[in-house]
Design brief:
By secondary structure, this protein is an alpha/beta fold. The protein folds into two domains: 200 residues, Spore Coat Polysaccharide Biosynthesis Protein SpsA, Chain A; 70 residues. Helices cover 42% and strands 17% of the residues. It has nine helices and seven strands, in the order αβαβαββαββααβααα. The strands form two sheets. A five-stranded mixed sheet has the order 3-6-5-7-4, with helices on both faces. Strands 1-2 form a two-stranded parallel sheet. Helix 8 runs antiparallel to helix 9.
Length: 289
């Protein structure tokens, strides 16, 4: 997957007005990717820096990336994941959106899901992330395609939470904190990356776990803001209602709608568990190659 990502950089439209470097953080107990990166680097339009982070965990790797950017005196950092590929106009569109809007803004780009096989094709629509209108404000975001002014983070000492390094959701937590600090988060639909979905994820079990994990993050954040019994009772009611609707729709053979309600119930369950400090290690294993 990393090779596919790096090869996609070969076709990027040039961004001549700013200096761009690519930092790759290998998060592993051993250095396995250095030779691969050095072999591909000469064909890429930008300088590539290899970084090794032996402490395991996605937030730890992302904080390493922040330190690498700060050490190189970068003014902005763009995060993308190693299971993605960039469209030719991606970087130019992302930078143009940043210049167009308030230049303290965090800009979130679009992510298009690309399943690798036809396995469980009826589930493919549920992997697609929401596509918003360019310029829309957001209350939170993710690091699968985003540009962040580094000064916006350092001014408020914002870093990724390493408390539960395999839980996931630390990017949502960071951007939600940024939103509370009145740092604008805007959307750019034209800055597109493609997320490759490996075959082992193309099943309802994985989707259920992802939605459950997303709910946990939301529940944790709501608890941090304020303890409210109304949050618990409302999510419990939604959970029961969505489970009931999922069952009825399944009986009526409305498969797609039934799955939709089931996944909402998974989110509701996660919200309740997260509110009461339940944690989940979603990223102890890696899917794909």
């Amino acid at each position: 997957m990393l090779t596919n990502l790096l090869r996609s950089f070969e076709n990027l439209s040039p961004l001549n007005e700013v200096e761009v470097e690519i930092d790759i953080i290998e998060n592993h107990t051993e250095q396995n990717l250095k030779d691969l990166i050095e072999n591909i680097a000469p064909s890429l339009p930008y300088k590539i820096n290899y970084n090794w982070e032996p402490r395991l965990g996605i937030p730890i790797a992302r904080n390493h990336a922040l330190r690498a950017a700060e050490n190189s005196n970068a003014t902005h950092i763009i995060f993308i994941d190693d299971d993605e590929r960039v469209a030719p106009q991606w970087l130019r569109e992302l930078w143009s959106a940043y210049l167009k809007f308030d230049q303290t803004s965090i800009i979130q780009g679009a992510v298009i899901s690309a399943p690798e096989t036809e396995t469980n094709k009826d589930l493919h629509p549920f992997f697609q992330r929401k596509i918003r209108n360019t310029g829309d404000y957001m209350e939170t975001g993710s690091t699968n395609n985003v540009i962040i002014p580094i000064e916006s983070l350092t001014r408020h000492s914002l870093t990724f939470d390493e408390t539960n390094p395999f839980a996931g959701g630390e990017d949502y937590i960071l951007t939600r904190k940024a939103h509370r600090l009145n740092i604008p988060i805007r959307y750019c639909a034209e800055a597109i990356v493609y997320e490759d979905i490996p075959d082992e994820r193309l099943n309802l079990r994985w989707l259920s776990k992802r939605n459950f994990s997303s709910g946990i993050t939301d529940g944790e954040q709501q608890r941090e803001l304020n303890f409210r019994i109304s949050y618990v009772t409302k999510r419990l009611w939604k959970l029961l209602l969505n489970l009931f609707k999922a069952a009825i729709l399944r009986i009526r053979s409305k498969h797609h709608d039934s799955i939709k309600k089931w996944l909402k119930a998974c989110v509701n369950t996660g919200q309740l568990f997260g509110y009461f400090h339940f944690t989940l290690s979603s990223y102890k294993t890696t899917d794909g190659n």
